[in-house]
Amino acid sequence: MTLRKQVVLVPARATFFTAVCIECADLDAAAGYSGSTFAGRLDLDLDHAMFLCRRGHSVRVERAAAARADTAA
Ligand SMILES: [Zn+2]
Question: How many whole angstroms from 7 Cα to the centroid of ligand 1?
Answer without folding.
Answer: 12
